[in-house]
Amino acid sequence: MKRRTFILSLLSIIPSHSLLRFNNSDNQVNNSEIIFNKIIQKAKKNNWKSKTIGDLIIEIAKEFINTPYVAYTLEGDTEICRINLEGLDCVTFYENALSMARLLKKGYSSYDKLIEEVTFIRYRNGIIEDYTSRLHYTSEWILDNIKKGVISDITKKLGGNSIRFNLSFMSQNPQFYKSLNDNPEFIKSIKKIEQEINNIEFYFIPTSKVKLIQDKLANGDIIAIVTNKKGLDYSHTGLVYKKQNKSYLLHASSKLGRVLIDKQLSDYLKNSKNSIGITVLRPLEV
């Protein structure tokens, strides 16, 4: 058997959580696991599990404050569930906080269980097949995680306006995505996904009305910021952090290079170029 054939056959039978350890450097995996275990120990000591899912997400998210913003941590030659808690982007930030909260609510505390939970949230139907099975567009992430019972989209109830996206950015710009560039056969699948999403109605709160609904937001709500950039749906994500009934944006900022509690959400949006409003997603109790 040729070496490449042997390796591919080996990868096909190794569980995804083992693949993470197989592919990533030992230091990265160990450091992320150390960070994870410290948070889990603190959560157990302070009985965070008794909190609502939203409050629990925020307790975990605050542990990542000042963590550097790092992009492209999910990319690699083989599609596996990668976790890097040493550097976060706007999606991996809320994704990890949400996954860890759900993990604790279920009574689990192992790193392998975290990988399983992130896999469930990050991939279509919770199954890794290839690069195209990852929920790349936030709009599809929303649809899939509503179906899986992870979140509820409360935007319409808050008085949101309907919107249909015209997604095309990934399929028209494969040069920006290593996996699409290396595997042009994936482009057709991505284009099909885009077309399917374009037929679905979403809702958003226009920027001018966000201040009016901020008191109805809750700790741990996921905020997806709608963009007017051609071919895209959402440009940024973060979490609602409540303090004295005010709603602040807790997020991983590429501009500031770290995770932080930022301005009140409405004030942040005023200075957010190309943003036209928000979609509000509420995590569901496990």
Notable characteristics:
Putative xylanase fold, disordered N terminus, 8-stranded antiparallel beta sheet, alpha+beta, about 20% strand, about 290 residues
Please tell me about this protein's structure.
The protein has helices at 3-13, 16-23, 26-45, 53-62, 90-105, 111-122, 138-147, 169-172, 178-182, 186-198, 210-213, 265-270, and strands at 151-153, 161-163, 202-206, 222-227, 234-243, 246-253, 258-264, 275-283. By secondary structure, the protein is of the alpha+beta class. Strands 1, 2, 3, 4, 5, 6, 7 and 8 form an eight-stranded antiparallel sheet that branches. The longest helix has 20 residues, at 26-45. The termini are far apart. 39% of the residues are buried.
Describe the secondary-structure layout.
Layout: H1 3-13, H2 16-23, H3 26-45, H4 53-62, H5 90-105, H6 111-122, H7 138-147, E1 151-153, E2 161-163, H8 169-172, H9 178-182, H10 186-198, E3 202-206, H11 210-213, E4 222-227, E5 234-243, E6 246-253, E7 258-264, H12 265-270, E8 275-283
Antiparallel strand pairs: 1-8, 2-3, 3-8, 4-5, 4-8, 5-6, 6-7
Helix pairs in contact: 2-6, 4-5, 5-6
